[in-house]
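To the wet lab folks,

You asked to see what we're planning to order before we commit. Fair enough. Below is the target structure as tokens, and below that is the sequence we designed to fit it. If anything looks off to you, flag it before the synthesis order goes out.
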């Protein structure tokens, strides 16, 4: 299906009995509801009750995040956030990339959080689950509104994205960076455009993301590359090329993640392999099993991002060597926490 990562909706893990319309061939011409058409993106505007998510995972270098959107139109077939759509009684398949939710009161909720007397600043990451610069951000501008709040109150912010749209907000990012309040990680999955269109049908090109790194670095914004996810035999051979190209574009740090397949993503990715890379399917899945203690996914802290075993160890060694060769530092940058201004303390600016 052109422009979509998944080609169907699978039942989610909370599904009850399902009713499906089936064309038996008798009434096709008389019943247009049987005609298959490309699904259109639907956006539901919601008033969120809270906006900051907290996590205690030792595998990520931050404990707070904001996702202004649920679901993601980029349609990346490997996205570990797909299973979260099941909590909304929607499929992690096509529903995840076509039935989206926009938290239109995101900036207002963030201001309220900052105004609480008990609030203590810690870096908040935008895009830990779904991309804050997915296509619908053109219209809703929720990410820009959040950045404006961050800047007004001098609060540190990190961003993870694979979209060139982030350059629209270069003015805000540069100003935040001048005060040590901002870092961006650009996700680069592949530099092979044919593979990119299959994996991430509505995301920016690999070359476009390298240009993002270049522009951010030139503007003084600390920027790194996230080579993720690494898929054995598919984009994993590109690891060194991705890190090298990003470093040459101006990236100052790097990280990588081995493909994770939680919950329904196991079926979705397996189906995708059958459609796009059937000859490599079993070899890819078997390599993942060898790196996940015989399973296609492991939620265990400490190994879920990297895997374990011979292949995982070799991948880690390759990453360390190319990062050292290119002079790249660690992913986490310590941002300023002492510049924070509460909404009722604005007079401190004068």
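Sequence we intend to order:
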């Amino acid at each position: 299906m052109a422009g979509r990562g998944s080609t169907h909706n699978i039942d989610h893990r909370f599904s009850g009995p399902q009713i499906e319309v089936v064309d038996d061939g008798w009434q096709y011409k008389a019943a247009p509801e049987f005609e298959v058409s490309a699904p259109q993106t639907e956006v539901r505007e919601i008033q969120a009750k809270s906006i900051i998510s907290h996590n205690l995972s030792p595998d990520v270098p931050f404990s707070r995040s904001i996702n202004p959107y649920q679901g993601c139109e980029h349609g990346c077939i490997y996205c570990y956030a797909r299973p979260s759509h099941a909590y909304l009684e929607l499929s992690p398949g096509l529903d995840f990339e076509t039935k989206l939710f926009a938290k239109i009161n995101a900036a207002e909720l963030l201001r309220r959080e900052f105004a609480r007397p008990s609030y203590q600043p810690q870096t908040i990451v935008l895009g830990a689950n779904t991309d804050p610069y997915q296509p619908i951000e053109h219209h809703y501008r929720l990410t820009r509104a959040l950045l404006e709040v961050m800047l007004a109150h001098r609060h540190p912010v990190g961003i993870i994205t694979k979209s060139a749209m982030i350059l629209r907000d270069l003015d805000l990012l540069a100003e935040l960076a001048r005060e040590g309040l901002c870092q961006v990680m650009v996700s680069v999955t592949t530099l092979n455009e044919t593979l990119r269109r299959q994996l991430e049908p509505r995301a920016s090109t690999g070359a476009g993301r390298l240009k993002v790194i270049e522009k951010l670095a030139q503007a003084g914004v600390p920027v790194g590359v996230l080579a993720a996810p690494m898929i054995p035999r598919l984009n994993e051979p590109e690891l060194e090329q991705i890190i090298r190209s990003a470093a040459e574009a101006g990236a100052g740090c790097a990280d990588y993640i081995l493909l994770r397949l939680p919950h329904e993503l196991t079926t979705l990715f397996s189906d995708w392999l059958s459609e796009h890379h059937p000859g490599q399917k079993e070899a890819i899945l078997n390599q993942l099993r060898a790196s996940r203690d015989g399973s296609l996914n492991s939620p265990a802290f400490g190994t879920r991002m990297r895997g374990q075993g011979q292949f995982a160890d070799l991948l880690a060694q390759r990453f360390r060597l190319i990062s050292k060769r290119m002079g790249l530092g660690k992913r986490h940058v310590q941002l300023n926490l002492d510049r924070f201004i509460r909404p009722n303390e604005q007079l401190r600016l004068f």
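Structural context that might help your review: Residues 310-325 form the longest helix (16 residues). The CA atoms of residues 31 and 326 lie 61 Å apart.

Thanks,
Computational group
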